[in-house]
């Protein structure tokens, strides 16, 4: 579903529920589209992220812990479930111009629910954070060292603040 954000690029978001106790696919796609269009608009208007006129395709896969554990084991050699994985279609440096296919974001329901409960936050709020987090990974942002983490977490925090969500990293050192 390609729609222009008021001040941002157009996204073509394809969402699918593969496994897990997720809400209906159309509702997830609408929720995710609103979040990711906002994040793309933020990157375009406040960060000067260059976008072309064509829609950018993003694939979202909503799954469960068992499935994401397999993916995490295969692609990252970590035999455990995780909350979100991002797979850029092409390497992109932060601030670089994305191509027509940005990449895939995979999210695991049980891990997200567990983390939200541990944080004392609504699942939708934590899901919003992880969608933004995964989206930034597709744009080349990372958190492998303190400098990268500070940049990426700062972007996440500013985007989330505009969505009415408090700083998920408050009181923590960069990851």
UniProtKB/TrEMBL annotation:
SUPFAM superfamilies: Metalloproteases ('zincins'), catalytic domain. One of its GO terms (molecular function) is RNA endonuclease activity. GO terms for cellular component: cytoplasm. Binds 1 zinc ion. Zn(2+) binds at residues 133, 137, 143. InterPro entries: MetalPrtase_cat_dom_sf_prd, YbeY, YbeY_CS. The keyword Nuclease applies. It is found in: Cytoplasm. The keyword Hydrolase applies. Single strand-specific metallo-endoribonuclease involved in late-stage 70S ribosome quality control and in maturation of the 3' terminus of the 16S rRNA. Keywords: Cytoplasm, Endonuclease, Hydrolase, Metal-binding, Nuclease, Ribosome biogenesis, rRNA processing, Zinc. Its cofactor is Zn(2+). It is an enzyme of class 3 (hydrolase). This is Endoribonuclease YbeY. It holds the Pfam family YbeY. Belongs to the endoribonuclease YbeY family. Its EC number is 3.1.-.-. GO terms for biological process: rRNA processing. Coiled coil: none annotated.
């Amino acid at each position: 579903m390609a729609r222009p954000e008021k001040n941002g690029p157009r996204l073509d978001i394809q969402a699918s529920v593969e496994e897990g106790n997720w809400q209906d696919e159309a509702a997830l796609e609408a929720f995710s589209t609103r979040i990711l269009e906002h994040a793309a608009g933020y990157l375009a208007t406040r960060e000067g992220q260059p976008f072309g006129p064509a829609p950018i395709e993003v694939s979202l896969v909503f799954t469960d812990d068992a499935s994401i554990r397999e993916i995490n084991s295969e692609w990252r050699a970590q035999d455990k479930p995780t909350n979100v994985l991002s797979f850029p279609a092409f390497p992109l440096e932060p601030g670089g111009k994305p191509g027509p296919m940005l990449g895939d974001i995979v999210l695991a329901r049980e891990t997200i629910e567990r983390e939200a409960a541990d944080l004392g936050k609504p699942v939708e709020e934590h899901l919003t954070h992880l969608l933004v987090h995964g989206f930034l990974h597709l744009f080349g942002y990372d958190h492998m060292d303190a400098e990268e983490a500070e940049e990426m977490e700062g972007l996440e925090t500013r985007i989330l603040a505009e969505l009415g969500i408090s700083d998920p990293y408050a009181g923590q050192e960069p990851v």
